[in-house]
Amino acid sequence: MINFPNVFSGTNVTLEINFQNVAKDELLSINRVVNDLMRENILETNVEKLYVTFSSMISTINDKETINYHEVIVKVPVVINSKEYIFPIISFVDDECSFLRGTYLGYYKRLLNPGNIYISDDKVELKSSILNIECKYSNKMKNRIAKVDFEKPFVLNKIVGNSQRPVDQSYHTLRISEYKQKYLRKFENIEEAKFVFFKKKYSIQNIWISEDSFILEGLCNLE
């Protein structure tokens, strides 16, 4: 059984994708439960960047059990009530408990077989019917990056877990405590890169790596 709070720790590799020529309807088609307000927000926003974060995580699911899993979250910057957020349009995960927890919280998740998500010190890879990524990079890093766009809070649909579009048109976000980031660094060189979304290739502009930990308490409404 999954009970909050859950404690998380792990390593993240985030890719910044040049997405200026993306078809908005095609992007939205991968999330079957996005509500109308979020749909309109994305259609009205000039989406030039897409962020994809590969995470190798350890987390509790209750006060006795812990899981190890890999996750890939595809994220779009949005603005709601003049505040900046990140909308996770789809998430791929290789653990059933993480899949169930994320679906309850409001993520649109796809459960993949182990091995379809690969993360190492110098390479990440995702194999799915929607998105294929293979990226190899140098492990030489630049100095710490002070601020990046993808560190905004997540915004999620209010009603989740349905196969049809939610009737409730409001939003929520995650209630996080004790967030700690050990480092955030930018990779020096992208040696090999392939980013294919619905059979169309896009360029990877930047790569960051970070290590963090936090406690997920549950959900809260947007301010």
List the helices and strands and how they pair.
Elements: E1 6-18, H1 24-28, H2 36-44, E2 49-60, E3 66-80, E4 83-93, H3 96-105, E5 109-111, E6 117-119, E7 123-127, E8 131-137, E9 141-144, E10 156-157, E11 171-187, E12 190-197, E13 200-201, E14 204-221
Parallel strand pairs: 4-5
Antiparallel strand pairs: 1-2, 1-14, 2-3, 3-4, 6-7, 7-8, 8-12, 9-11, 10-11, 11-14, 12-13
Question: Tags for this entry?
Answer:
223 residues; 3 helices; mainly beta; 11% helix; 5-stranded antiparallel sheet; 54% strand; 9-stranded mixed sheet
Distance between the termini: 30 Å
Give start-end ranges of low-pLDDT stretches: 161-166
Taking Cα atoms only, what radius of gyration do you get, to the nearest Å? 17 Å
The whole-number mean of residue pLDDT values reads 88
The share of residues in helices is: 10-25%
How much strand? over 45%
Order of helices and strands: EHHEEEHEEEEEEEEEE
DSSP E strands, number: 14
Shape: globular
The major pleated sheet works out as: 9 strands, mixed
Task: Quickly give the structural class.
Answer: mainly beta
How many DSSP helices?
3
What does this structure look like?
It contains three helices and 14 strands. It is mainly beta and 223 residues long. The strands form two sheets. Strands 1, 2, 3, 4, 5, 9, 10, 11 and 14 form a nine-stranded mixed sheet that branches. It is globular, with a radius of gyration of 17 Å. The two termini are 30 Å apart. Residues 161-166 have low confidence and may be disordered.
